[in-house]
Give the backbone structure.
Amino acid sequence: MEEKELIKTLKDKYKWSETQIRLGLRAKFKCEYCGKDLLKNIDDYKLWQVDHIRPKSKQGNDDCNNLAISCRQCNVNFKSNYFPMNKNTENMSRQELIDVFKKYIIERRQNASMELSEMRDIIGKLKKITGNE
């Protein structure tokens, strides 16, 4: 099959948009923030989202240079509408902005992981006390 036929199949049969296809190809179908392979399995595929690097609420647009493939965890749970508005970010390239968000998301994930570990310890102790082990 040729490229046009393959794209037509994705659009017609699977209801992908041209934008989703182009963004997916550019990102190698991986979350551009954490690297999760969004075609690895159905659970990961269902996490696929298109993120506005610069949120619309911060004067972002729908141009492909402002869009990134993201997993739901990175986009909704960790990045959300975060955008550091300052002189440095105004002139950053697309990749430089993605790198800023990668660092931010890694920090948020590490903090969430530490919180989860603490919660597990507390719940483990609570289970022992209540006899619900």
Q: What stands out?
A: The chain is about 55% helix and 10% strand.
